[in-house]
């Protein structure tokens, strides 16, 4: 045991966050609010037969992260097929650049962004030719 099996993204505006993650990554959402006793939407991130985990959007219980604040938590990184088109979607839907695209030589392209709720996340496109 000890493997990550679920994640939660804390959000200020549930509908805005669902739109952002739904349109950028194709996630779908299930309302689990009655079960959780608060606004809580399960995030289905892909086919159950593919490697990966599902998570949820949860209403933030405190102050939003301040711009420039040090990371306080885990940064989730999503695998993508096309880094550049995903970046365009992120920026067009209100996300911001945190750390520009860089090569993990011989492995992938990686970069970090800030979602509409102030949270940092990464995207990762496998590419053995990255340099």
UniProtKB/TrEMBL annotation:
Q: Name one Pfam family in it.
A: Ble-like_N
Q: Which residues form the VOC domain?
A: 3-126
Gene3D superfamilies given in the database record: 2,3-Dihydroxybiphenyl 1,2-Dioxygenase, domain 1
Q: What is the protein name given in its UniProt record?
A: VOC family protein
Q: Which organism is it from?
A: Paenibacillus dokdonensis
